[in-house]
Amino acid sequence: MDFQDLNAFVHVARLGSFSRAAVNLRTAQSALSRRVARLEHGLGVSLLERHGRGVRVTRAGELLLGEADELMEKLMKIERLMGEHSGAPIGLLKMAMPPTTGQVLGGVLVAKCRELFPRLQLQLMEGFSGSIHRWIEGGDVDIAILYDPEPSAHFLVTPLLKEPLYLIAPAKPGAEEALLRNGEIRVRDLTKLPLILPGRAHSIRALMERYAAEHGFKLNVINQVDGIRTTTGMIEAGLGYTIYSYAGVYEWLQSGALRAIPLSPRLRWTLAITHRLDIAPSLLEGIRRMIIEQVDILLERGLWHGERATD
User: Fold this and answer.
1) 127 is a domain residue
2) What range does the domain containing 146 cover?
């Protein structure tokens, strides 16, 4: 069984289409068809059935697909290890990041990875900090970019960027105006405003709750919303305020739909690179350098606010 033939089948089966799989693998659709046909011929069974909107997996295809994921992961790991030894990273690298970070950084990382490491497939996963912690602890991802990661024996943490947090308010001034001093709002005065915050699995909620507990007050959280687009829509409608970094809501800030009010004292969260201990140093260094360079570019463009962090 040829590894590339199996890889072609898995992608077509998962995406339900030869054309979508061809785009995903950056190859010709005819080449994928030949690979799947060769795999079917070698196994002596039909794996896919074509229909008007794409393809469906046959019973034999379902059996193969059920066994393929673990096999593919092992084969890609072997291929990656050999590539690292030769100095040219290849195979699959799984990377996770929060939704707002992925919105700003995901596309540029994929584009740069294709340019620098053409034989390395970067698989992106999106989730909140709590989920990403579980993924990297369990080995479901190799490297992650997330905020304020907890120390662990399973991975190493490299601080990347310290971002200030802001009170995100509607474009039209409201109840917050009476609380401002020199254009800032005291963190303690947030008790006087209706807050819309994510759940406790989100690192920004944990940071704010911890600060409030340490200073003897309680946040006035009127709604818990795990989704920045829903949250910003509620703020635009005048239903409350949230706490976030500039990069997470830059679209709304630049358009004038929302305002960012500095906090006093300044609270910051730290964006960090985390990676499992079993990643080869040669691959890790190349990926880390790529991430740092792209973050520096976004800082220079003003898309991110903050300062570079050090270990």
Assistant:
1) yes
2) 86-160+271-304
Give domain status of residue 311, yes or no: no
Alpha helices in the chain (DSSP H): 3-15, 18-25, 29-43, 59-86, 99-101, 107-116, 129-137, 203-214, 228-236, 250-255, 281-300
pLDDT tens, 131-175? Answer: 888 888 777 888 898 888 877 777 788 888 898 999 999 999 999
16: CB partners within 8 A, 6+ apart:
53, 54, 55, 56
pTM over 0.70: no
142 and 223 inside one domain: no
Instruction: Give per-residue pLDDT as tens, 36-74.
Output: 999 888 889 999 988 877 888 999 988 888 888 777 777
Write down which residue in 45, 71, 97 finishes a domain.
71
- Residue partners of 300: CB distance under 8 A and separation at least 6: none
Q: Which of 284, 286, 283 is nearest to 275 (CA)?
A: 284
Q: How far is CA 250 from CA 23, 104, 240, 298, 303, in A?
A: 30, 9, 18, 12, 7
Average pLDDT over residues 302-306: 79
Nearest-Å Rg of the Cα atoms of the chain is 23
Region 107-132: what's the mean pLDDT? Answer: 84
How is residue 157 written in tokens? 């943490």
Structure tokens, 299: 């800082």
Same domain, 132 and 275: yes
- The reply to whether 148 and 221 lie within a common domain is no
Domain annotation covers residue 77 = no
Instruction: Give the pLDDT of residue 231.
Output: 95
Closest CA to 254 of 104, 29, 141, 113: 104
Tell me the C-alpha to C-alpha distance, in Å, between residue 71 and each of 6, 137, 159, 288: 10, 21, 34, 28
Structure tokens at 85: 């030894």
Claim to verify: residue 108 and residue 249 sit in the same structural domain: no
Report how far residue 110's alpha carbon sits from residue 46's, in angstroms, rounded to the nearest whole number. Answer: 34
